[in-house]
Amino acid sequence: MESAMWSEKYRPVTLAEMRNQVNVVNRLKRFAETQAMPHCLFAGPPGSGKTTAALCLAHDLFGERFMDAFMELNASDARGIDVIRTTVKEFARIATISEVPFKILVLDEADNMTADAQHALRRTMERYTDTCRFVLSCNYSGKIIEPIQSRCAIFRFVPLAEEEVAAYLKTIAEKEHVHLTEPGLRALTNASEGDLRKAINTLQGAASLGKSIDEKVVYEVVGKAKPGDVQDLLEIAMKGDFLKAREKLRSLLLQQGLSGKDILKQIHSEILRMPIPEKSKIELIDAAGEIDYRLIQGADEEVQLSSLLARLALVSSQKRSS
Amino acid sequence: MNAPWTVKHRPKTLADIAGNKPTIQQILDWLDLWKKGPPKKRALLLHGPPGTGKTVSVEAVANERGLDLVEINASDKRNRDALERTVGLATQQTDLFGRSRLILIDEVDGINLSEDRGAVDTIVRLVEETQVPVILTANDPWDPKIGPIRNATTMLEYRRLGLRDTLPYLKRICEKEGVEVDEQALRLIVDRNQGDMRSIMNDLQVLTSGRKRLSYDQTTWLGFRDRRATIFDALKTVFTSPTCLQARRATDMADMDLDMFFEWVYENTPRQLSDARDLCQAMNALAQADLYRARIDRTRAWELLPYALEMETAGVAMSKEFTKPAWVPMKFPERIQLLSRTRKMRSMQAELGKSIAARCHISSRRAISQYLPYIKYVLNTNPTEGARLVRWLGLSEEAMEYLGVKPTPPEVPAPAKEVEPKRAKPRTAAKPKRKKKTA
Hints:
The complex is a heterodimer.
Chain A (H helix, E strand, L loop, with lengths): L5 H4 L12 H13 L4 E5 L6 H13 L7 E5 L6 H13 L9 E6 L6 H13 L4 E7 L7 H6 E5 L5 H14 L6 H11 L3 H12 L7 H10 L5 H9 L3 H14 L4 H12 L6 H19 L4 H21 L1
Parallel strand pairs in A: 1-4, 1-5, 2-3, 3-4
Helix pairs in contact in A: 2-3, 4-5, 7-8, 7-9, 8-9, 8-10, 9-10, 11-12, 12-15, 13-14, 14-15
Chain B lengths: L4 H4 L12 H13 L9 E5 L6 H12 L2 E5 L7 H13 L8 E5 L13 H11 L4 E5 L8 H6 L1 E4 L5 H15 L2 E2 L1 H10 L4 H12 L4 E2 L1 H4 L11 H10 L3 H5 L1 H4 L4 H15 L3 H24 L5 H13 L16 H8 L1 H18 L3 H18 L1 H10 L4 H6 L27 H9 L1
Parallel strand pairs in B: 1-4, 1-5, 2-3, 3-4, 6-7
Helix pairs in contact in B: 4-5, 7-8, 11-14, 11-16, 14-15, 15-16, 18-19, 19-20
């Protein structure tokens, strides 16, 4: 019996199959037709089709067997300057033998590359333009250094509209013979916030229950299939039980394998909605920003984040006593 | 000079031993448990400063109870083979005359990790399987390398000997040796040696040799031995010093790895500073110290170290303002234990992340936060479907086991590759990603 992550199983293979990001896709189709393209920078939120577009473009250019002329590197996993100097160069400098005169190298999550690595990349891009085209994808183009931006055609990917997400989900549900109710569909599109990957993963999780998917089922999946319960962590800290909060933080980091950065991001997204004085929120945001920078500098994730928890505990205790 | 007094006057019976009587009673009580078969913890870890009577009391216990004592100490080679030969044999048998055995592994904190390879693991296994009582001794039970041993044993502490413990004992020895020693002189010797009976005896023998009488004046030239304060003294300094200068001395007191010292302070700060205001300030100081450490790591700028040390000592000390005084015991840094306990788990997580990343065109970091939870959810609600998914990911057998999936179940005989959906091309996933891994 077949099984796969549906987000892979139903990933479009050709540009023609891509139903959203119409403007972007139309221009990419031109590249495939003319077999000519510049370096590209795909900017947009997660799950909006950047990686898919790059894969489809490669498929349309090189055909089914495009592995020889195509390489995908994930910058968050391999973000150092060494990778640029070795792996990337190695791939880029050897010319391809296919009729298309260049290879494609996709650098996913390029905004996670260090500035040094980006500068090294810039030189590589320049030197091997004849043999290799780079497709960089990122969430924020602002995090890419200007010299690289100026060498790339920039494509902006917008978050998928609810109807677009809904259309994809309906197709998949049909093919997988899953009964998806109207409220269930609405809950899915709602919870995914335009991130198709998340929407499909949630759908697959909900389908595993083997019953009709309604609102309730969707919210159960969304509630349970969370990378880690940061909400819980914050509640414990706000109750003033710092030791327990630190223990929880420790288990998120060590046992659930979350990165400090992911946890900080989730905490940050909650700050504005916390039941604490408005002025304290500003204080916390400032502290979170400082910690984010410290983590980049290589500071200890647990020590830094627990200082934020201590501050949160203090702020909430002052609120309680006043 | 005759035999060293430390040998000549080495106690043979429990009554001869100075100090730590309650602890010795605990050893006896524990041995009594063995009459009904092995108790839950089959080994004791006696810990305390040198010269407090750890080894001697084990010897005396064996002597009084008529036990055959098998002893291994730091001067023996203690790698896995050597240990298994000696201790392994001893744990399973009684001696030729049918006497019960007692095994003593002395100075376990003296294990040299590179030379005594596998020693810690072997000891832990022996302790878990032994059929006869095992007693271990250590000066520094908090040494991270013997963490696993600490968890497998019952710990008993030997305290430094005080004047009350030592004076009557020393007087008896002086009498036997036929020398007259002023009480003031004895007090000074005991004091200077901080209750270390072995060094007291050595000093006493040196000072009295060739004399019939030893006065206070004649002892004052005696040099100090350098004693290291324990980590607990250093922590007490951090959490009680009224001035920065005093708090700062803590790092000089503790003769230990500075990173380890930081872990101790970090672990205990929230326990010692219960007021939220104090705690927030102290945690900030620690975060700041950590930042300096990170900068040192990155740039090798060791000249930044004093700032880190001052923040983690004085910075914490000065945060204590509103916390009500209370005695709270210090705890061993739990994070260190958890780090070693979860090492396998974390490497598993990393592998899962990589496998998912290779299949789903995403970074392994995001794979863990955005895919793994769903996969686990499916595994939970629909194990059959979940198992298929896991197989599709092409995980290693170990990783499958970690997720609770049997590697090759009977109902799906086809290998993972053939289960691949038709539409998902044999694209990118396999080949280019593999390039990256080897890079």
